[in-house]
Amino acid sequence: PYVGLDELAEAVLLVPDAVLVVMGFGRGWDASVARDTDPRFAGRHFTILAVHPDELVTWVASADVAMVTLPPLSFNQRFTTPNKFLEALAAGTPIVLGPDLPTMAGILEQEEAGRVVASMAPADIAAAIRSILELPVAERRAWRDRLSAVARERYSWPIAAKAYESVLESLDQAAPSRS
Question: Residues 38-70: pLDDT tens digits?
């Protein structure tokens, strides 16, 4: 609940031949599994168990579009970069991002990594999905290759670790000496 799955499920019905695959577990599991067998979503909605983190980027890379459509209900949701966003970048999978999520939107726009939806209305989500899926195949492939390279160069753990170590060193230098 409250992560946009209901809206996503409805949006997929507005995109010809699209299928929504929901991976994971949690509070929304039962509702998601129930949607799998709802005649309205037959063949268009699948709920699968979470996979090991080491396998996740490969799974995300198999998608045509990654959905990060958190409704901006809290400060945390508005200013976070959840794992699914970073996994999509690492996989090179274009992202459809919910509205009013400024931290992720800034990265998405800077890196040209996807589309921000106008609203959480299913028609707006579907329009963003279509704007990616309707690109020529060669253009989508080049986009994905570029995103994968950007992720390796700017958002990988080795890059983040260097910045983290630098912060720790500056804190250590600023700390009073212990004798």
Answer: 999 999 999 999 999 999 999 999 999 999 988
The tens digit of pLDDT for each residue in 130-178 reads 999 999 999 999 999 999 999 989 888 888 888 889 889 999 888 787 6
For 36, the token pair is 């799998």
Residue in 124, 130, 134 with CA at minimum distance from that of residue 98: 124
d(CA 25, CA 47): 9
Diameter over CA atoms, the chain: 71
As a whole number of angstroms, the distance between CA 81 and CA 101 comes to 9
Comparing CA positions, the residue from 47, 61, 24, 74 lying closest to residue 151 is 61
CA torsion sign for 118, 48, 152, 138 is negative
Instruction: Find out whether 129 and 15 touch, Cβ atoms under 8 Å.
Output: yes
Residues 6 or more apart in contact with residue 134 via CB below 8 angstroms: none
Q: What is the pTM of this model?
A: 0.87
Within a 10 A sphere around the Cβ of 149, how many other Cβ atoms? Answer: 11
